[in-house]
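sorry for the late reply, my laptop died twice this morning and i had to redo everyting from scratch. anyway the thing you sent over, i finally got around to it. pasting the sequence first so we're on the same page, its 155 residues, then the predicted structure underneath. double check i copied it right bc i was rushing
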Amino acid sequence: MTNVISEQRILPMEPQRDEYGFWTHPDFFEPADGREYGELGEFNAWLEVKGLEYEIDFYERDDGHEDEFGCADWHPSPPRGDGWFIGSIHDTEDYPVCIWLRHLCTCMSCGCTDDHACVDEHDTPCHWVKVDRAAGTGICSQCAPDWLEKLAEDN
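ok and here's the structure:
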């Protein structure tokens, strides 16, 4: 049986930017019905189905050439944290943007995620002790002691 989730996962790839500096991942969001722009909530629904989160980086020229088209000289830096990859570098009505994507991860033990951390008795949120962004799994700080104990018992 084929794993549907793995078919839906977008794999990071090296951007092949055009002469203007633009590029869009071949599996990036496309609005329904061939529309140029997505309807309200459509992009967020796509992110949820794909198990992704996003950040936007805005290109701002500081060389006085505001009227020039493109951003070939721009090399956007990923957001803080690991696992970020470029989903698209494209133009908007105002300026070029870079859409960074990252797979959300789920704790293999308790089911907490990047967006929904579990907390300890002092209301301190967990953090990742071990995470595999490509697989979308990890072990959080709340579960790590139990997980290590279980691994020791299995060996």
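Residues 1-6 have pLDDT under 50 and may be disordered.
thats about all i looked at so far, will dig more tmrw
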